[in-house]
Structure formats: C-alpha cells, structure tokens
Amino acid sequence: FSQNSDFFLRILTLKSELKKKFTCGCRYVSKAAPKTQLEYDYDGPSMKTSVPGPRSQNVGAVNFFCNYEESRGNYLVDVDNNRMLDVYTQISSIPIGYNHPALLKLMANPNHLSTLVNRPALGILPPENFPDKLTESLLSVSPSGMTRVQTMACGSCSNENAYKAMFIWYRNKERGHNMPSDEDVSTCMINKAPGCPDLSILSFNGGFHGRTMGCLATTHSKAIHKLDVPSFDWPMAPFPRLQYPLEEFTRENAQEEARCLEETEDVIVKWRQKGNPVAGIVIEPIQAEGGDNHASPDFFKGLRNIARKHGCAFHVDEVQTGGGATGKYWAHEHWGMDDPADIVSFSKKLLTGGYYHKDELQPYRIFNTWMGDPSKNLLLAEVLNVIRRENLLEEVTRSGKALLNGLYDLQAQYPGILSRARGQGTFCAIDICDDATRNSILLKARDKGVLLGGCGDRSIRFRPALIFKEYHVHIFLNIFNDVLAEHK
Ligand SMILES: Cc1ncc(COP(=O)(O)O)c(C=O)c1O
Predict the structure, then answer these.
(1) Known catalytic residue: 397?
(2) Is 348 noted as a catalytic residue in this protein?
(3) Bridging pattern class, strands 200-204 and 236-237
(4) For position 248, which CATH number holds?
(5) Which Enzyme Commission number(s) are on file for it (predicted)?
(6) Which one in 83, 203, 330, 463 has a CA-CA gap of 20 to 30 Å to 292?
C-alpha cells in the first residue's frame, strides 16, 4: 500500500499546500455575501491564456484538456493552468466539487481498495455488503412511494432499461399474469408481435432522455442527436411553453398547460385506437437539454392523473434534475405529491445510474454485465453524508435565490440581450437574444474564468455543484456582467 499511503499523506497536507500556493486576492467580494471560504476551494478564477490554451489547441470536439489533480472545489483547472469557476460541472454531474477532501479520504482507505479494483457482474455476483451500501446510499433518498432501486451505468442505459420494465409490466397487466404464451416466445425471436408487441412510450416536444435507440426515440431536443438513426413510431405530446415573468402571465400559462394536458390525453387515445397503445409516459421535471423549460406542479399532477386514468406507467427522468440542485434531492418533490411516479431514473450527480421503481415494476428480465458499479455507491454514500453534514440543500436554496435575483437584475440592465430568467435552486437558466450572441457570451465568459453551458436554441444554463455558495454567485455575476457589457 505504499503508493496509497503517499496519496493519503498528500491529502493530509492539502490544506497547508492550498494556503501556501493560493493566497491571491479574489476579484470580487460581495458585501451582501461575506466570503466564508471553503478550505478546499480556490479564491477565485485565474486565467493565464484564452481557452483552449496552447496545450489544448486543435482538439476537435473536446473543449480543452483538464488537470483534475489541481482542480479543487468549484474550480476546474486546465492543462494551461487556467483556473475557471465551474458553473457547468461536467454537464451537471459533479455533486460536491472537485477533489472534495471527504471523497479523497474515502478513496485512500485501504479497506476500499478491493471495491475499486474488482468490478463485479452485479446481477449475478454482488459483493456481500452491496445491499447495505444501497441502503446507505440510494435507498436513503428514495422518492416517495418507492423502496426499490435498480442500479445501472449511465443515464441512457437507466432510461433504456426503465422503458423495458414499463413494457414488460404493461404486457403482464394485459395477460393478467406473467407467463408468456408459446406464440409470444416464438414471435419475439423474429421481431414480430405479439412477442415483440406494438407498444409505445409517450414523450414530450423538447425532451431529452439520452441517445441510445429507445431513448433517442423519446428525445426531441435537437435534430443533430437523431439524424440518420432509425426510430420507433412513438407519440410525442406538447410540453408547455411558459411566458415570463410568471406572475404576469398566470392566466395564459394555466391555459397553455391545460392545452398541453388535453393534447396529451388525445394522443394517448389516438395511439390506442391505432393499435400502438402508450405503455408509459416519460418526462423531465425541468426539460434541461431542451432549453430549461419549466411547468407548474399542477401540470405534473394533471399528467400523473392522465397516466393513471389510461393505465400508462409514469416515468420521471431525473437524470439531470436529481441530486439536490433544485434545493431538494428530487425536483419532483416540488410537486408535493405522495405518489409522484412509477419510475424515477437518475445518474449524473448520483454518480451511478439507475432507477427507482414501484414493486409492480419488478426488473426480473432487466440485466446486463455490470448493472452499475459498487465503487460509485461507496462514493455516493459519502457525498450524501457531506450533503447532510453541511446542509447543502439549504445552501443551494440560498445560493439559488441569490443567483436568480442577480439574473433578474442583469435582465433589467440588459433587456436587449437577456430574457426569461428562471430556475429552481441553483438549477437556473436565462435566454439570450440569439444563438450567435449566446455562443459568443459562453466563449467570452470562459476566457474570463467562468465555465457555463448552453441548452435549447439560445439559453444559458447554470449547473454549479452543491457547494456553490453565495459568494461564488457574486464572483460569477460580476464576471457575467463584464461579459454582457462587452455585448451591449
Ligand atoms: C434528462 C436526461 N436524461 C438522460 C440523459 C442521458 O444521460 P447519459 O448522458 O448519462 O446517457 C441526460 C443527459 O444529459 C439527461 O439530461
């Protein structure tokens, strides 16, 4: 274990190293939010070159190469030693920042080495402590009404398998039992009904559920994801397009949501009539890739009822929204329902993929080699400890308010550029006047030391880690303001 103990020593000296190395002044300290520096975080961005810098040039689709050893807390460092405040966090997938001391300490524990080195085929040969680790991690934050979880490797394979579980459930419901007929068995081998039944998953305009074949058939955010790939003939319903500010458009938005619910029900009826019934409905609580589109709790309650009424399973895709960024572990908790869904899928901030499900959606025939990764559950259990110990969900709510208020102010200051500031917790977004300006703002912000992401046609999305405090919000707003001033 000599290498491992060296590693451990490095962590113990991390604090003093940080103090020695990074005593540079912060570019902006809000008076409203006094800085309570995280001991493992940097003071602020520090840019040596524009990004990508010389060591990252000519890298095709890759934005730039990173130095993960030097990245800390809310800051991502690149190979040219540029240190950027990360408000995008690896497409919303870093829960508690880079190199969190609690996670480094956990990984330095020799007792965890075998979990890191030996990746099991979890479906047949799980480690003895796997059920306990699930109880400590994923099951400790189960959505309301769900006590079962199936782990998977990524967001797409979680959704892909969740769809399969919904189809199997639907067919068993139709049969009245779970014993397939001889005809079912023989026809499925040649891709024909009834073994491979004509059933569909209903999804929403602007939704994103991944890029594997089934998921892609339910993804409708950008043509580039779907182009040239054959798809299933599955229905799509409209997702509400809300007008902002919400308080000025209460009536119009309620009408828009009522229209979408009505059309959804019509689509379900039509598809049953045409012999391709809807077995399941999949929806994101906030459409993320599609442009951070929100809808009210009433809309989701209405949809849940429609699913129940027509015997469709209701799948809430929390791959991007789950894990705390909205101020709750699950965005659907904001709907205030006891029975919000039949399936809730996750990945990203939960570090492992997977889905929670009701007892009736037993995954008997859901299987692949890895079915997740126990080392990720180990990390997740510690991430959840940190979230609880440091009250990070409350912090997110506080930082989220500061972020949204800051965006409202900037929107008032730059009405020609910004509109539709919106968000829940730190899961926020704002629209830019056009796609070209949006892209230019993203690049300029990056050169000034702030990493942001785009979504939809012309939105910028904010996806910081859960350790993004109010003073980080103000560092960000200050730089964002500088960038906007250049576009005025
Ligand atoms: C809501 C949603 N579902 C599914 C996925 C697919 O996850 P993955 O990229 O891990 O396959 C994403 C990815 O961004 C997502 O945002």
Answers:
(1) no
(2) yes
(3) parallel
(4) 3.40.640.10
(5) 2.6.1.19, 2.6.1.22
(6) 83
